Amino acid sequence: HLGGTLSDGGANKFAESIGITMVPTDKLVTEYERKEWEKHKKYIAGVNEEFNTQAHDTVGAVALDSAGNVACATSTGGIRNKMLGRVGDSPVIGCGGYADNISGAVSCTGHGESILKVTLARLILSHVEQGKSVEDASQLSLQHMGDRVQGAGGAIVVSPSGQWAAAFTTKRMAWAAAEDDVLCVDEHKGAG
């Protein structure tokens, strides 16, 4: 049982110690991604521009069970040309995701460094704890991130009472919500 998070060389050593077959890094890079890396590698502001203008591959989930327990999960899409050893917002509790049975669950997407600087997931639930709706809490927190650190992003949120929201400041964010066997799907802001 691990009591923390492993990254970079530590993760590789652990994987080898439990018998995971190692694959050369160059085998994991597609020709498309190699060309995109070449195109953007000299562009200093590329990371900020990409996150503020394009869709990405983060997959997040929030859930509420019949006993009132909430949960969140966030899987990063990653960023191109990241610094070696960079750990983004997704694995950092309170940033890319946060869940508390008292206030709700959040999963975030967007510019990781901005999300980290404002602890976005925890900030959203802090507003909920102060009496804001999940929609208002999400909008306020995303606006704060934009004003404070010029970052764009999005969040999905569910409260212990079943109130939910999908909010974002990027051009789009695909989301889906299921409630009482009814599925809602969109790429625009939503709440229920």
TrEMBL record:
Annotated protein name in UniProt: Isoaspartyl peptidase/L-asparaginase
Keyword vocabulary terms for this entry: Autocatalytic cleavage, Hydrolase, Protease
Organism annotation: Cyprinodon variegatus (Sheepshead minnow)
CDD domains associated with the record: ASRGL1_like
Residues annotated to bind substrate: 86-89, 109-112
GO MF annotation: an example: beta-aspartyl-peptidase activity
Stored Pfam families: Asparaginase_2
Family designation: Belongs to the Ntn-hydrolase family.
Gene Ontology BP terms: L-asparagine catabolic process via L-aspartate; proteolysis
Broad enzyme group: hydrolase
Gene Ontology, cellular component aspect: cytoplasm
Site (Cleavage): residue numbering on this chain: 57-58
SUPFAM superfamilies (UniProt xref): N-terminal nucleophile aminohydrolases (Ntn hydrolases)
Protease found in the keyword field: yes
Catalytic residues, chain numbering: 58
Catalytic activity: L-asparagine + H2O = L-aspartate + NH4(+); Cleavage of a beta-linked Asp residue from the N-terminus of a polypeptide
Assigned EC number: 3.4.19.5, 3.5.1.1
